[in-house]
Amino acid sequence: MVSSLSRSPHAQVQENSRDPGVSILVCGYNDLVELTLQALEAFGHRAVVVAPDLPPHLEEQWQYLQADPRQPGVLQRAGIERVKVALLLEDDDQANFELALLIRDLNPQVRVVSRLFNHSLARYLDSALPQHFSLSVAALAAPAFALKAVSDEFVGYFELPQLEAQPATLPPELADPAYFVSDRETTLWNVVELTIGYNSRLLHMPLSELEETFGARVLFHYPVDGLSDFSKQRVFDDFDHEAELLEGDRVLVICDPRAYLQLLERNGRRGSSRAQRWASGQMQDKRQQRQGRSLGRGSLGSWLRRGVQGLLQVKPIVRTLTFTLGAMLVLGVINFRMIGKPLIDGLLLTIVVLTGGYGDIEAFQQPETPLGVKVLAVMMTLVGAALVGLIYGLVTDKLVSSRFGLGRAARMPKEDHVVIAGLGRLSYLVLQLLRQMGYEVVVVDPNSENPLLEAAEREGAVVVRGDYALASTLQQARIQGSRCLICTTPDDLTNLETALTAHSLQPGIRTILRVTDPELAARMQRHMQTLGISYSATGLGARAFATAALVGSVYGTLAWQGETLLVTLLEVSADCHYLGLSLRQLAQDYDLVILLHRSRPGKPCVFPKIWQKEGKTLLKEGDQLYVMGTVGSLIRLTQGRPLPPELYQVRLLEYRNPYFEDEILSALSFYARLPKTALKPLLGCLPAVVSPPLPRDKAIKLARQLRKMSTEVQVFAQAQPAHWIPAAMNENSESNLN
Questions:
Q1: Is the pLDDT of residue 178 over 60?
Q2: What is the pLDDT of residues 529-577, one digit of tens each?
């Protein structure tokens, strides 16, 4: 039985939307849909929900149509002809696939955002259907779970289409001609956190020089002197790009994978962890997949390097057998040369000896054959018997496991492995990422009928069947020796119970919990930090789907300091309210990071330096921008609500060395545009505000200059009462800002 709409769909959308010409259709109902509807409401938009089963409370909050959306008549009743955006959020890929084709028939102009787990199907639909964009909750959230399990410094990564890399200008001692070529296309970017150590070669390097040298972009700078993070409403605060890195400073950097390991090396790290090696190799692997290069192509040096890298990635037993067999062959050829055998004959006879054919060689039966040659041949026979047995065993195991589906069970690791409680779509992608990094994985799941268990075993994971929350099950998974526990079951309480059991067996174990409600995850992160890290995969996905519907295509999500950072595409049209703004004004007004600006004609500008001349570039119709922002930033952008300008002042608390008095007055005079004689009385009545209202980066720069002169300073927002400021200084504030 199909119920009618609570109100006319078109009228409701017009009434509740900021733009009357925009209407949104949501197909399906689940936890993701509910959170996506909340995100859409935060953007200022309402939606029509079409699903066979709807909860009672939905009638009071949203327009709805209780029916199967895969029926053309149902979509027509929901107003598909007037819909501008359709969100297909069913749990089943097949249902979303059918809906995408049906909606394209009914309204060829609608923008369709589909939830698809199958990566191949998603890529095909994105290329075949116009105005179609696919997202997967599992794919969006998996990097956050996997990377946090094994690394504190590797935050995440994102990939942008057809993005040319800015060539890095690395010093000669770090440059690798095989990897650093200026015309090389790259689309993958890593986001990493660096803590400057005492032995770092980045010490005293200005941030601008770091960006220029490594072709990177600094997102956040947390200086050890505390001159940062003053704004309560901004995430991407301006910082002093000329500030030098000091011991203890933390920076969050977007960098090309080619420069990732070089950054770590300059910072005193050798990049020895598996996560670091995996991250640095992603771009090369993806480029080879796109171009379909074979191992036989390229220079001899690159071919040998790839061969050595491939050999180092195989199992230790295989490497040992390879080196031992090679040594035996060389030794055998030398042994037979001693009795006058040619090189080829010596190689063939060595193979015969290694396979147990000592008695078939006439030379060993002759009395004139040296005793040493015979003894060495006997030793080779014994070693060959062991080698042949091991090789037969490995080959048989490989054939049985790959051809007949038997013997796939991996050995239970003793330590340094990752335990995953609950195997679903999200945890399977997490497992794949961990295995790509080279980590051993143990999966705990009570459902023997789970079809993903067989796939997990093929990936090389060990499967333990049993209740996650039981201590005996976790002990069977050797939780005491593991490096991390990832709880991804659908039930929040089960995840919490499993984490508590793990902490009772191994206090202090790194734990990552999947929590459905993003608000609950945030509260757990604030009040239960000792238990572990809490992520809401559904909340992360809901924000991405809402952004894809109302802003632009989403190319990555990152979880950082309690914020969700999204990488999205902005296309400047004739009716955009930010048409004609400069890049700097757009970034400051809406708290965004501009990753790339593409204007036709002209080359795309990667990481434009908006604090310099590039920031004055005006946006024109047809421009494309790849930006990073929080959900709040993107909401303000769609609603045209820029942040109010923030200005800061510097308070001088005391200065300890009169020797610097003249230099202090010179610095204050430069920013206040006043003579030093007018400012000198301030030094006699400290503490005092010694600057006019300044942009944040200039206020921090002044504060750092004063600190170098043995002073104690404080930076504060202009909203605070400003005492001890001469009237003349206030009159000159505006000229100083210019």
A1: no
A2: 788 888 888 988 999 999 998 898 898 888 887 788 899 999 998 888 8
What pLDDT, on the 0 to 100 scale, is given for residue 155?
83
Sheet holding 648-655, edge to edge: 688-689, 648-655, 711-717
Residue 302 and residue 163 share a domain: yes
Is the same domain home to 239 and 293?
yes
CB–CB of 203/196 below 8 Å? Answer: yes
Would 590 be classed as within a structural domain?
yes
Give me the CATH number covering residue 217: 3.30.70.1450
Task: Answer whether residue 143 is part of any domain.
Answer: no
- Rounded Cα distance between 126 and 97, Å, is 11
pLDDT of residue 175: 40
Q: CA nearest 180: which of 215, 231, 130, 229?
A: 215
Buried b (16+ CB within 10 A) or exposed e, 590-629: bbbbbbbbbbeeeebbbbbbbbeebbebebeeebebbbbb
Sheet holding 441-445, edge to edge: 462-465, 441-445, 418-421, 484-487, 510-514, 533-535
523 & 634 share domain: no
Ramachandran bin of 591, using left for φ above 0, alpha for ψ from -120 to 50, beta for the remaining angles: left
Report for 121-135, 259-273, 704-718: range of highest mean pLDDT: 121-135
> Which pLDDT belongs to residue 405?
46
Q: Cis before residue 687, ω within 30 degrees of 0?
A: yes
Please check whether residues 478 and 603 belong to one and the same domain: no
Same domain, 570 and 439: no
Are the CB atoms for 438 and 418 separated by under 8 Å? no
- Total tally of structural domains belonging to the chain: 6
Give the structural domain span for 271. Answer: 149-308
Mean pLDDT of the chain: 78
